[in-house]
Structures are given as structure tokens and as C-alpha cells.
């Protein structure tokens, strides 16, 4: 695995909530979602209902952006990942199993699961130097 992607993946595995932004022709939406992340597929799996504003947007425009951050007031410890990708209905059984392994209590709710296939990551890691950026893009 690419060294930059490995650093980003390690960070993503330490967290479980993302902020997700979506848009349609005339609407914007942002939400927070629990996620599980798969290194090999460079994809997140999330659960969400079709009656939410962000899913309504996504059904019209599957391109999304999001972030996962470490909340801290210490500038030298700031870390976060921004990403762009495509959002779709989950088809992969292994990804489904990953989500329910990560959040076993969610199985009782029978949620609708979705995949975010990431095309771009930008990680900020101030532990490596102020404003240090780590980039990865799917070629």
C-alpha cells in the first residue's frame, strides 16, 4: 500500500464519525455519520435512511465531500482527513459485514447501507510540522 494512503488509513481506523457534504442542483446538506473504513477498497461504508436530505441529494448527485477530524485545541496535535468520492448503494457483502462487525448493535435496526468510494484524500498532520499535508489520489 502507498505510504501516504497507509498513514491516512491508520488515522481513519482510529475514528468512527465523519462529516459528509452533499449537493443537488439547488440544495446543500451536511451530516455526521458513523463509518467503517476498508483499506483495500479505499471505501467507507455508512448507514442512512433514504428520507434524509443528504441521501435525497446523493440520489440526484452522487459526488460528495467529507472530513474526519481529531478534536483538539492544541495546534501541534491537529490532525484531520478531507476526502472526495462517489456515494452509492452498498453491493459488497464483505463491506456489509465490516459495518456490522464495527457496529454490531446496528444490525437490530436493519439500516440501509451505502458505500463511499474515495477518489481523493488530503490529510493534515501538525505532529509532522505545522500545516503538513499528506495527499493521495486514485489514479
Radius of gyration: 15 Å
Sheet with the most strands: spatial strand order: 1-2-3-6-5-4
Query: What percentage of residues falls in helices of 4 or more residues?
Result: 10-25%
CATH architecture type: Roll
Q: Total strand count, please?
A: 7
- SS field, number of helical segments: 3
Mean pLDDT: 94
Terminal Cα span? 14 Å
Number of domains: 1
- Which superfamily, in CATH terms, is the homologous superfamily? Electron Transport, Fmn-binding Protein, Chain A
The level-1 CATH class:
Mainly Beta
Q: How would you explain this protein's 3D organization?
A:
There is one protein chain. With 139 residues, the protein is of the alpha+beta class. It has one domain (3-137): Roll (Pnp Oxidase, Chain A). 21% of the residues lie in helices and 42% in strands. It is built from 3 helices and 7 strands. The mean pLDDT is 94.
Index terms:
single chain; 139 residues; alpha+beta; six-stranded antiparallel barrel; globular
Give a topology summary.
Layout (H helix, E strand, L loop, with lengths): L2 H11 L3 E7 L4 E11 L4 E5 L5 H8 L2 E7 L9 E11 L3 H10 L10 E13 L7 E5 L2
Antiparallel strand pairs: 1-2, 1-4, 2-3, 3-6, 4-5, 5-6, 6-7
How would you sum up this structure in a few lines?
This protein is α+β, with helices and mostly antiparallel strands and 139 residues long. 21% of the residues lie in helices and 42% in strands.
Amino acid at each position: 500500500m502507498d505510504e501516504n494512503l497507509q498513514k491516512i488509513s491508520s488515522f481513519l481506523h482510529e475514528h468512527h464519525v465523519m462529516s459528509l457534504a452533499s449537493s443537488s442542483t439547488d440544495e446543500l446538506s451536511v451530516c455526521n455519520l458513523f463509518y467503517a473504513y476498508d483499506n483495500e477498497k479505499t471505501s467507507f461504508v455508512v448507514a442512512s435512511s433514504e428520507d434524509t436530505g443528504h441521501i435525497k441529494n446523493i440520489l440526484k448527485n452522487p459526488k460528495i465531500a467529507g472530513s474526519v477530524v481529531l478534536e483538539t485545541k492544541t495546534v501541534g496535535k491537529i490532525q484531520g482527513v478531507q476526502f472526495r468520492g462517489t456515494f452509492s448503494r452498498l453491493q459488497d457483502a464483505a463491506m456489509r459485514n465490516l459495518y456490522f462487525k464495527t457496529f454490531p448493535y446496528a444490525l437490530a435496526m436493519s439500516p440501509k447501507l451505502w458505500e463511499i468510494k474515495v477518489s481523493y484524500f488530503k490529510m493534515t498532520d501538525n505532529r509532522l510540522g505545522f500545516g503538513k499535508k499528506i495527499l493521495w489520489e486514485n489514479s
